Amino acid sequence: MSSPIAIPSSSYSAAHAVSVSPTTGSAIQERLRRNSLASSTNVRQPKVLHPIENEDLRLLLLENISPDAVKTFESNGWRVDHHTKAMNEDDLVERIGQYHAIGIRSKTKITERVIKAASKLLVIGCFCIGTNQVDLVTASKAGIPVFNSPFSNSRSVAELVMSEVIALARQYFERGYEMRQGVWNKQSKNCWEIRGKTLGIIGYGHIGSQLSVLAEAFGMRVQFYDVVNLMPLGSARQLESLSSLLSQSDFVTIHVPELPETMNMISGIQLAQMKKGSYLINNARGGVVDIPELIKAVQAGHIAGAALDVYPHEPGANGSPFDDQLNPWASELRALKNVILTPHIGGSTEEAQRMIGEEVAGSLTRYLNFGATVGAVNFPEVDLRAITAEQPDHVRICHVHVNRPGVLKQVNEVLSPYNVEKQYSDSKGDTAYLMADIADVSPQDVNRLREMISKTSANILTRLLA
Question: Which of the residues are catalytic?
Answer without folding.
Answer: 285, 314, 344
